[in-house]
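Example (one chain per record):
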Amino acid sequence: MSSKDLLRTTVAAIATVVAALTLAPTSLRAQQLEKNETGLPAYPHFKTGSQYQATAGDGRPAPPPINGKRYQIYVASTPDTMPTVIAWYKKELPGAKASVEPASGVSGPTTVLATGSNRVLIYIVGKRGTIVELQKYVPGA
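Predicted structure:
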């Protein structure tokens, strides 16, 4: 499997997990805005957000490794349009390398902004608005 195929598979798997978390509106957790602990910039109009550590803790499972690396992940949603959110992140992360991954079975195309080993994924899941996933690489986790 090529690295590009592995990345697509990983993005699709993460999108599935995120969709499951995002599409559970009866969960109190899905309706609150937790603190972003990644150190990556948080879009100012997030309506919901959940923090996931690189290792299991406080009753939450750790996110799966991405290409063999562990990440601290913050997933949030905003009613703002995807182009608006992408423009904001491009301004906040001027050196980021941008790419677009094809649509998965769960989400539309995903814009990925990478700064070193850190990544910001921006996509749409259903009618939930724009989803932003902040992935902060945690060495040695």
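Caption: The helical segments are 3-22, 82-92.
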